[in-house]
Design brief:
The protein is built from one helix and ten strands. By secondary structure, it is mostly beta strands. It starts with a helix and ends in an 8-residue tail after the last strand.
Length: about 140
């Protein structure tokens, strides 16, 4: 019996809440591996000073699949570093079979970086793009 997308989303939520980073399920004829991005892992160093406050926000994948920077019918990517985006704008897609799920900007701002590699397999919560929010009422074009 195939695993449904709703079941995959539910499993990803359970993983995130429980702090488990990876789960693999194998059945005859199918397998599923979910990887939850738990954030950067850096060893603490006594040499490091207190880091500067980073107000960047991260656009994350809501589903697991393959990351696309542009729709297959388009030549240009949705966003590029240095580009202004509005909250809710599409910054990429996750392809799941024939389905394309949008990844949206969580805030209005300037794209600092597209973190995920085009074509890479991404999981629920994988960081896709880093956005530097603009102050309210900002009119930078």
């Amino acid at each position: 019996m195939p695993i449904e997308l709703t079941e995959i989303a539910h499993l990803a939520q359970i993983l995130e809440r429980s702090g488990v980073a990876t789960i693999e399920i194998e059945q005859p004829g199918q397998s599923l591996k979910l990887v939850v991005d738990t954030g950067p892992r850096m060893a603490e160093s006594p040499m490091l000073a207190t880091p500067a406050v980073d107000h960047s926000v991260i656009a994350k994948a809501d589903v697991a699949g393959h990351f696309l920077t542009a729709h297959p019918w388009r030549d240009r990517p949705f966003v590029a570093p240095g580009q202004r985006v509005e909250a809710g704008a599409i910054v990429g897609l996750v392809r799941i079979g024939l389905l394309y799920a949008p990844i949206v900007a969580p805030a209005t701002g300037i794209v600092d970086a597209v973190i995920a590699e085009p074509g890479a397999t991404v999981g629920y919560g994988t960081a896709i793009a880093r956005i530097r929010p603009l102050p309210e009422g900002s009119s930078i074009n």
